[in-house]
Design goal:
Elements (H helix, E strand, L loop, with lengths): L7 E6 L4 H14 L3 E4 L1 H7 L1 H10 L5 E7 L3 H11 L3 E5 L4 H14 L2 E5 L6 H10 L4 E5 L2 H9 L11 H7 L4 E4 L4 H6 L7 E6 L15 H13 L8
Parallel strand pairs: 1-2, 1-8, 2-3, 3-4, 4-5, 5-6, 6-7
């Protein structure tokens, strides 16, 4: 089992070119971010080159490749691990054999596997299946289109916090919550037992409590990292 001894701040580099991604990553690392994520837009735009560039620029920093793998699991995970990714993402809605292939590739090439339950009819059961198939982490994820479409139909927009405690209680691996969270909600995730806090980039500091007087983005991000890091990792009772 993967052990997390303190909350971790991960920044998702949802940018479409390497130069901007590296500039944002440097700002984030100076502010105290722990993990870098090659977000799906960056992977779509730059592919393996983006991951390699991040690894070259940040040789000792964990790098998550948000592949959202649905098929060809072994090859995708192998390629990203060889490019420098320390973590790869596979979807719970993929066939179980694909998840098994990603897990095996992770073991063979030294990468951890994050299983994403986006779109599962039963989010808790999806998270449990990901753990049972060997994933090292669970991403509890309410998708962008799902949130927007439900809200456009006049219904309450769903949040990962709705079932986060149930997901945390259902699995023994570390959990990450993703999808439409405000800064305050993201910072509060460790209180739910989910120690991996994700912030998206391009960065928008939208919480008054985490704005500096001069609007300095790096200093604001440092305040957020400090607020996350000072919390304890809540264990399941």
């Amino acid at each position: 089992m993967t052990d997390i001894t303190r909350p971790i701040v991960q920044i998702s580099l949802d940018l479409t070119n390497i130069k901007e991604a590296i500039e944002t990553a440097h700002l984030a690392m100076r502010a105290g971010v722990d993990w870098l994520e090659a977000g799906t837009p960056l992977i779509l735009a730059e592919g393996l080159h983006g991951v390699r560039a991040l690894r070259q620029e940040f040789p000792d920093v964990p790098i998550v490749a948000d592949l959202k793998t649905m098929d060809g699991g072994y090859l995708e995970a192998e390629m990203m691990a060889k490019a420098g990714a320390t973590h790869v993402v596979v979807m719970a809605r993929a066939h179980p054999e694909t998840i098994k292939c990603v897990v095996q590739a992770g073991r063979d090439f030294g990468a951890k596997v994050m299983g994403d339950n986006l779109g599962c009819p039963d989010m808790v059961a999806g998270a449990k299946e990901l753990e049972d198939l060997g994933c090292d982490y669970v991403i509890h994820h309410i998708g962008y289109d799902e949130r927007r479409g439900i809200a456009a139909a006049g219904h309450r927009m769903p949040s990962p916090l709705d079932q986060l405690k149930k997901v945390v209680e259902a699995v023994s691996v570390p959990v990450q919550a993703v999808g439409g969270l405000s800064l305050e909600q993201a910072i509060a995730c460790p209180e739910y037992g989910a120690p991996l806090v994700v912030l998206g980039a391009p960065l928008t500091i939208d919480a008054d409590a985490f704005k500096t007087a001069d609007g300095n983005l790096e200093e604001s991000l440092k305040l957020i990292c400090d607020a996350v890091h000072q919390q304890e990792v809540r264990t399941r009772s």
